[in-house]
Amino acid sequence: MSEVTQAKSARPGLFLRILQSDLFYSFRHSPLTVASAIVSLILVLAALFAPIIAPHDPFDPASISIMDSFYPPAWSADGQPGFLLGTDDQGRDVLSTILYGMRISLAVGFASVLLAMVLGVTLGLVAGYVGGVTDTIIMRIADVQLTFPAILTALLIDGVARALAGPRAYDEIVFGVLVLAIGLSFWVQYARTVRGSVLVEANKEYVLAARLIGLRPITIMFRHVLPNVLGPVLVIATINLALAIITEATLSFLGVGVPSTQPSLGTLIRIGNDYLFSGEWWITIFPGITLAILALAVNLLGDWLRDALNPKLR
C-alpha cells in the first residue's frame, strides 16, 4: 500500500471530524445552546409532520363545526378532551392551527432568508470584487434602503403587489409576495458583510494566483472567494431567520399576510386578539407563546454561532 493510500485511510471521516471540531466542542459545552437546538428541532419537526401529529385538520371545512367554537383548554371546567388547547372562533382546534401555522411561518422564514442571502451575497461579491462604479451604485442603493425599516419596506412591496394583482388574485400569490417582501428587506446586511470580506480576500495570494492563470472573474468570485466569506453569512442567516419569522407574523397581524383560511402564527395572534378581552385568551396566548419560543430559540443559536465563529473570542 502506498503512502498516499495509507494517508487517505488514516484520515478520519466527515462525521468524526465534525465531532472533533472546535465548533462542536463549543456547542456541546453550552447547555443553553443545546437546549435551544433541541427546542428548535422539536418545533421544526412538529411543523413538518403537522398532518400526522395534529389532532384535527383546521383547513378541512368538513371536519370543522361552528358549534365547537370558543371551547377553553381541556383542563378548564368547560374544556373538551378532544381540544387540548381549546378552539377558536371558527371551531378549529388551537393546537392543530398552531402546528399548521408554524409550517407557513417557517416556510416563509426559510424562503425569504434564502432569497435575501442569494441576492445579498451575489451583489456583495460583485461590489467588492469589481469595485468602481458598480460598487458605488450597489452600496448607495443599500444605503438608501437602510434608511427604511424592514417592516416598512415589506409593507410597501406588499401594498404594490396587492394593488397590481387585485384582491382575488392576491390570495393566490400571497406566499410569494411575503417571501419577496421580506427577502428584499434583509439583503443589505449580506451585501455589506460580503463586500467587506471580499475587499480583504481580493488581495490575497490565492486570488492573485487565480488571476494569473487566467480564470474568469465570475469563477474566482464564486469558486474561490465565496467559500472564504461564508462564515459571517451563516451567522446573519441564522439570526435573520428569527427576524423573518417575526416580520411575517407582524405583517399577518397587521392584516397583510396570509389569509385566515390558512393562518400563520401571526394571523392566529391577530384573530385571537379580537377576543382577548372578552375572556377567550387562549386563542391568542398559545400562538404568541409558540412564536416567542421559536424566535428566542433561533436567536440563541444565532448568538452562539456568531461567538463560535469569531476568532477573537477563541
Automatic annotation (TrEMBL):
Coiled coil: none annotated. Gene3D superfamilies: MetI-like. It is a multi-pass membrane protein. It comes from the Bacteria. One of its GO terms (biological process) is transmembrane transport. Pfam families: BPD_transp_1 (PF00528), OppC_N (PF12911). Keywords: Cell membrane, Membrane, Transmembrane, Transmembrane helix, Transport. Its main location: membrane. Residues 102-302 form the ABC transmembrane type-1 domain. It is found in: Cell membrane. One of its GO terms (cellular component) is plasma membrane. The chain crosses the membrane at residues 32-54, 106-131, 137-157, 169-188, 233-256, 281-305. PANTHER family: ABC TRANSPORTER PERMEASE PROTEIN (PTHR43386:SF26), OLIGOPEPTIDE TRANSPORT SYSTEM PERMEASE PROTEIN APPC (PTHR43386). Belongs to the binding-protein-dependent transport system permease family. This is ABC transporter permease. The lineage of its organism: Bacteria, Pseudomonadati, Pseudomonadota, Alphaproteobacteria, Hyphomicrobiales.
